């Protein structure tokens, strides 16, 4: 390894560099973030996806630390898996550490990890890197971007950010630090591209107050506000407005309750005595004096909101007069699920407020004008759009070029492509091996593309298996074949088809005396698949087992 | 049946009354539209969905006609199935009949149907109903709304509509007819709710000209415009702009080519000589002088655009310098698929324009101010929001109440709920039986909820089948059990798990001598499922077959 600065966004799917990034110089690597990806809707049965860090595995000795920008799932969700493979210290801000600890309680790494708390303004030296976290506004408190001074120059990693002049916690982005970086000269800016398709500025969190006041004032009964379990600032906002309208608050959903407790303890949530009550207590109060906060804004079937929508919550029922507020954005791919939940809540008599119909959510990511502002404050030599799909990065790249960054200094790459800086020249290397890893129950990485293809086929068309007793000596079936089928047709109503399938199987299993069972199985599968295709124009997964009698 | 006017929106899924509606008086029924629904992404393997008209089947003699509002799939796509069950005349405008004929060529009903062409301004008497189709603007030419005079009063069915003052075909909505209806007094308005969440007015189709001019002028090479195969006005628009910039046009995709040919023949498309060429001819022209129109804006894997995105089109390849325009809206649920195609086109070097990033599409449906305009022109006694999910209807209902329609005269119902008018009083009846029917290859209705649940389970976790040779006399396995598994784990890499599974099966099949095979199968399935759940925390579909030796 020559002494060059090298940056590799990792994780094969979706948003570039969002879930993990490797920053390397000489024999030193720091990793930024370890988050999960959400499965796309055709990735059947997958709980979540983690980056494939196989590329780092044979460089294990070189990894010095993992540095976390903020406490969202797509930045910390894979940390427990990562720490199983890499015994390195974790750097994060106080609230982020709190969220990490809540997570690590559920899935403990083999060794208790070394957690270092850092804060905006700190200066941390790790090998040849000097890391300066600086505060950014985002849809979670205590998020940071990173200034990373390397022997090749200063790079700035924006984290997930927006410029909010009136954030709920009163703590705006650290402009002074950005200006200081700019004064020192920035080799490269890696910047959040999520909203590069949105013109203008992202509205401030403060904008939501008006909408919440209106809802709390006008709602004739209970108000149920759903949001992400980690959106601490939204919880604060709802608490403040609810208290003003004389409403008490209860929290439904374990992850949100855990996070609230932790954030209160660390001083990131300010809830006056008596405002927060239990679910049991809130049920005894007049409906007009209550607010329930819940999870499930993405239509996740097991979350509180979906249970309410189908009438399957342990202790709560939606009733006429309830008002439900979805204070969240839609993670792409979840539209159908969410709309289904919304429709069902209406069906049960609730009134429902949701984005974009009502101003009950703002994005946590910079829009085009804020993206331009960051570029113009820092005036970096090179620009690398990150945190977005290719389409977002392309758009962000256009923006950077509009601001005068020369074409050859803008690098748009997908995950796995290393960027090297050689004497200030930006080069794109060959893709490193690796991609992503499916997590499915206790199976981590056991599920690969072959299994996913089979799930897809099974989900589309089901299967049919023929079991044939067979006498090799005569080359004839030794009894009636059995046929099992699931997910293809409704068997009790398809007797005629199944009995013809049996005939096909019998005749395919009538062969030259002495034929080997394996050969008969192949013949049976071919004949059966062909028959089903002709009859139904479908292709179920067909297998057969020949049992020698 | 007493002599009351009765309206029943049919089809159990999604948008109310969009795909089919039954309008009844005495012993007379007319059906409005016969469209398909698109499967939601968790409806695995389903090609499309048609309304369940079982409720009409025992009223077969009463059905007098089917009346079509316009030629979109969700209004005509189920017609060939409907005509297999109901031998009734079809009323539609000329272009809509053309589109129907193209469809019926692919799936012929048993009897050649009786097609009646009607036009905006016609007056048609069917039993006690007098039907007056009137022209509306929508994202397809020759669409109509319906004035239907019944013995109970005049009802107006808006069809799918917007108010466009500068439509591509120069033919605006028939305001005069609406005013005339209003003068006569309208008992009930049934109105399109699709965009009831969108404030303001939907922009005119003419608005797109500027964007298309810009693309055709600036694109350094080929321009590929993708849109719906039936969006004849968009094809016209692209032809006009392309011709001005000296570009020739070819059409890729059979359905769009068929529709273009038909619309040209009927005079709904005006393409100057020499502008339309074949795909082979266009490949010989300089890239800057060409436009290709294609289908596949929803990310459908077999459509032209998806084939281009993955490099699998028969004769075309995407190359650096190509510009691709998605001139279409996103059907909810298709976001992921579409973004995948967009990202892949970028990957292959194309520049991509898509909604909402670029103004290359406008909706075909009225926004809030247009919805208000229709209500205020007609001043109906009763208001029934249709063509939308429950959440859209609720919003549209709010709008109607804001305009002074009394609460008791606004009926928000889901599909299957009959509305009766008794002396001008609007009543909601008991839900009629029925819902929707899955179409899966040649299987129409054979796939029910049981099979869909199995597909879901198989897709999530795959299956494992154990085949056990068994001697009843001894109550022992008569040989090594065989295990087949698909979509669960990758078998070659999971030998240890599979061999332990075999042990479990063997021991579960070791029972009291004389135990019946059925009982053994049950024992094996329970033991195997329990083992897999404990080991992997997953629940594949487990079956077993015991073969007596």
Strand adjacency order, main sheet of chain A: 7-6-5-3-2-1-19-20
User: What's the helical proportion of residues of chain A?
Assistant: 25-40%
| CATH fold-level name of the largest domain in chain A | Metallo-beta-lactamase, Chain A
| Beta-strand content of chain A | 15-25%
Could you state the oligomeric state of the chains shown? homodimer
- Main beta sheet strand tally, sense and closure of chain A: 8 strands, mixed
| Count of strand segments of chain A | 26
Low-confidence stretches of chain A: none
Instruction: Return the CATH class of the largest domain in chain A.
Output: Alpha Beta
Tell me the Rg of chain A in angstroms: 28 Å
Chains forming the largest contact: A-B, 65 and 66 residues
- CATH architecture annotation of the largest domain in chain A: 4-Layer Sandwich
Q: How many distinct folded domains of chain A?
A: 3
Q: How many H/I helices of chain A?
A: 16
Mean pLDDT of chain A: 94
Walk me through what this model shows:
2 copies of one chain form a homodimer. By secondary structure, the first copy, chain A, is α/β, with parallel strands linked by helices. Chain A has 3 domains: 5-200 and 363-444, Ribonuclease Z/Hydroxyacylglutathione hydrolase-like (Metallo-beta-lactamase, Chain A, 4-Layer Sandwich); 205-354, 3-Layer(aba) Sandwich (Rossmann fold); 449-548, Ubiquitin-like (UB roll), CATH 3.10.20. In chain A, strands 7-6-5-3-2-1-19-20 form an 8-stranded mixed beta sheet. In chain A, strands 8-9-10-11-12-18 form a 6-stranded mixed beta sheet. Chain A has a 5-stranded parallel beta sheet with strand order 14-15-13-16-17, with helices on both faces. In chain A, helix 4 runs antiparallel to helix 8 (254-265), helix 6 (208-218) packs across helix 7 (232-244) and helix 15 runs antiparallel to helix 16. Chain A is globular, with a radius of gyration of 28 Å. Chains A and B meet through helix 11, helix 13, helix 14, strand 23 and strand 25 of A and helix 11, helix 13, helix 14, strand 23 and strand 25 of B.
């Amino acid at each position: 390894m020559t002494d060059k600065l090298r940056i590799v966004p990792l994780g094969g799917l979706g948003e570039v560099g969002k879930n993990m990034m490797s920053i390397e110089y000489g024999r030193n690597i720091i990793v930024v973030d370890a988050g999960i990806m959400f499965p796309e809707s055709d990735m059947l049965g997958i709980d979540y996806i983690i980056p494939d860090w196989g590329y780092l595995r044979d460089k294990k000795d070189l990894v010095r630390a993992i540095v976390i920008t903020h406490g969202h799932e797509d930045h910390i969700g894979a940390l427990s898996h990562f720490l199983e493979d890499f015994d390195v210290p974790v750097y994060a801000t106080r609230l982020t550490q709190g969220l990490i600890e809540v997570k690590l309680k559920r899935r403990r790494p083999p060794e208790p990890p070394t957690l270092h708390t850092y804060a905006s303004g700190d200066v941390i030296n790790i090998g040849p890197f000097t890391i300066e976290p600086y505060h950014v506004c985002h849809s979670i408190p205590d998020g940071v971007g990173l200034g990373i001074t390397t022997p090749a120059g200063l790079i700035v990693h924006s984290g997930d950010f927006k410029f909010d002049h009136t954030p709920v916690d009163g703590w705006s982005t650290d402009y002074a630090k950005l200006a200081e970086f700019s004064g020192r000269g920035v080799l490269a800016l890696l910047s959040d591209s999520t909203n590069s398709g949105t013109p203008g500025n992202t509205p401030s969190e403060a904008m939501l107050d008006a909408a919440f006041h209106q809802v709390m004032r006008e709602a004739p009964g209970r108000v149920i506000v759903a949001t992400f379990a980690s959106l601490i600032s939204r919880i604060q906002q709802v608490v403040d407005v609810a208290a003003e309208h004389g409403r008490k608050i209860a929290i439904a959903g374990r992850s949100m309750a855990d996070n609230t407790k932790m954030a209160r303890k660390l001083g990131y949530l300010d809830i006056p005595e008596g405002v927060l009550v239990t679910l049991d207590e809130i049920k005894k109060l007049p409906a007009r004096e209550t607010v329930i906060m819940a999870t499930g804004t993405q239509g996740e079937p097991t979350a509180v909101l979906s249970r309410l929508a189908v009438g399957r919550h342990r202790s709560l029922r939606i009733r006429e007069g309830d008002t439900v507020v979805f204070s969240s954005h839609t993670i792409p791919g979840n539209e159908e699920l969410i709309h289904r939940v919304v429709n069902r809540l209406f069906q049960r008599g609730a009134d429902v407020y949701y984005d974009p119909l009502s101003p009950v959510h703002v994005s946590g990511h910079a829009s085009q004008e804020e993206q331009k502002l960051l570029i113009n404050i820092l005036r970096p030599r090179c620009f690398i759009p990150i945190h977005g799909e290719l389409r977002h990065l392309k758009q962000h790249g256009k923006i950077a070029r509009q601001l005068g960054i020369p074409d050859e200094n803008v690098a748009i790459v997908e995950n796995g492509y290393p960027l090297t800086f050689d004497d200030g020249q930006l080069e794109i290397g060959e893709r490193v091996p690796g991609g992503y890893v499916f997590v499915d129950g206790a199976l981590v990485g056991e599920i690969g593309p072959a299994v996913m293809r089979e799930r897809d086929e099974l989900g589309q068309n089901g299967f049919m298996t023929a079991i044939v007793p067979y006498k090799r000596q005569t080359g004839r079936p030794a009894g009636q074949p059995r046929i099992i089928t699931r997910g293809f047709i409704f068997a009790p109503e398809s007797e005629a088809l199944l009995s013809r399938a049996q005939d096909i199987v019998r005749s395919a299993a009538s062969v030259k005396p002495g034929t080997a069972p394996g050969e008969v199985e192949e013949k049976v599968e071919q004949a059966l698949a062909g028959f089903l295709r002709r009859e139904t124009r479908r292709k179920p997964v067909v297998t057969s087992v020949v049992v020698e009698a």
